Amino acid sequence: MTVLGWSDFVSACGPRFDDCANREELVLACAGDTEIACAVYFHAGEHSLAWLASPVPALQGRSPLETLAAGRGDELRKVLLRMP
Description:
By secondary structure, this protein is an all-alpha fold. The protein has one domain. Helix content is 62%, strand content 0%. The chain is built from six helices and no strands. The chain has helices at 6-17, 23-29, 34-44, 48-53, 64-69, 73-82. The longest helix has 12 residues, at 6-17.
C-alpha cells in the first residue's frame, strides 16, 4: 500500500535529515527504512530515538518501534504525515 503524499513529504524532510548526526543508528532503529527515519527526524530531531520508543496515542498507545516490528509501517507513515 502506498500512503498518499508520502513521497512528497519525505522529499521536503530530506534537507533536515542531511544534518542528522546519528543517521545510521536512526535508520537501523526504523528497520532499515530511510524514509521513515527521515520523517521521524524531521518531527523529533535529536529526540528521534526516544520518540521511537515512546507510546503514541495515535498508534493506540503502541510505540513506533512496536508498530514497525508488527509490520505496520503504513500506519506509522500516516501518523507521521498528520503530525504538526
